[in-house]
Amino acid sequence: MGRQPDRRDPRTGSVISYRHHVVSLVAVFLALAVGVALGGGPLSELGRDDRPAAATTGQQRAAVRDASYGDDFASASAAALYDRRLRDHPVSILTMPGTPGDVVSALGAQIEDAGGHVAGTYDLQPALTDPAEKSLVDTLGSQLMTQLGSGAVAADAPTYVRIGQLVGLAVAESDLPSADATSVRQSLAGAELLSSPDGAVRAPIVLVVLGKTTNPAILSGLLSGLAAKATGVVVAGDAAAATGSGDLAALRSESVADQVATVDGADTTLGQVTTVLALIRSTSVQGGSFGASGSDGAVPVP
């Protein structure tokens, strides 16, 4: 039997594979079976027995096993897939407000498994992404641009693209002297826009981990500015961020998607391994949409 054609979700525009379509149909049939078993379905008058319920329970157990199989496979095969290709490639992690700490820790561990190391974990503060604080962001960005001198930041950049470039100078390795990068970090910290650990250093590759929903225009501007200063940028979010009006779904429709790679499912082991494969790829290729909802495939091939 030939391969069935892909379809697109009319609401999100994402590709729906034939297998995903079958899984959806199975879920509908399971729901109907549960209704019948409980006496709420159209066949309730025909009598009841235990066989439908037992079958449903078995199918549910199989569904749970299928859901965990991807994570189990990713855990078992990660080292071979990585082949230590992040060796000599430090990574800066930039967290958005509301990012789960356990996800950040798990991603850091996967980076180490790939032969890399986390140069520093930087936390964007809520004020930086709060539309009500745009005046503060704009004023500080203008001051730092003047302080750094010509060429460090694009003079005609909009507010959030400019602050994104400044964040890039603070966390991503560039031609900017270390002393100036430290000064930018201190200024951003003083304005409660960015926090960083003592001894953090910059790295050419930046992993951005999404948290709470961010205004799409602000997020797009930040990432566009960041991408202008980093060798590679990967943006990771959970599965929900890739659906409906989630951050990843919105981001993937913007032009900045050509500059940064996006990965969904970062709250799972499979998504975390996919994220690190995207980091490996970003050392030479930018952009790309990966994960269960990714338009460029489930997993990037470095």
Describe, in plain words, how this protein is organized in 3D.
The chain is an alpha/beta fold and 302 residues long. The protein has 2 domains: 15-78, no CATH class; 85-290, no CATH class. 47% of the residues lie in helices and 12% in strands. The chain has helices at residues 18-37, 51-82, 101-113, 126-129, 134-148, 159-171, 178-190, 216-227, 247-251, 269-282, and strands spanning 7-8, 15-16, 91-95, 118-124, 194-195, 205-209, 232-237, 261-264, 289-290. It has a 7-stranded mixed beta sheet, with helices on both faces. A two-stranded antiparallel sheet has the order 1-2. Helix 3 links the parallel strand 3 (91-95) and strand 4 (118-124). It starts with 6 loop residues before the first strand and ends in a 12-residue tail after the last strand.
Keywords:
about 300 residues, alpha/beta, 2 domains, seven-stranded mixed β-sheet, about 45% helix, globular, disordered N terminus
Q: Secondary-structure map with pairings?
A:
Elements: E1 7-8, E2 15-16, H1 18-37, H2 51-82, E3 91-95, H3 101-113, E4 118-124, H4 126-129, H5 134-148, H6 159-171, H7 178-190, E5 194-195, E6 205-209, H8 216-227, E7 232-237, H9 247-251, E8 261-264, H10 269-282, E9 289-290
Parallel strand pairs: 3-4, 3-6, 6-7, 7-8, 8-9
Antiparallel strand pairs: 1-2, 4-5
Distance separating the two termini: 31 Å
Helix content: 40-55%
Radius of gyration: 23 Å
Structural class: alpha/beta
Could you spell the SSE succession in H and E letters?
A: EEHHEHEHHHHEEHEHEHE
The count of strands amounts to 9
Averaging pLDDT over every residue, what do you get? 85
Low-confidence stretches: 1-49
Percentage of residues in DSSP E strands? 5-15%
Number of helices: 10
> Any idea how many domains?
2
* Global geometry: globular
Strand order of the largest sheet: 5-4-3-6-7-8-9
The major beta sheet can be summarized as: 7 strands, mixed
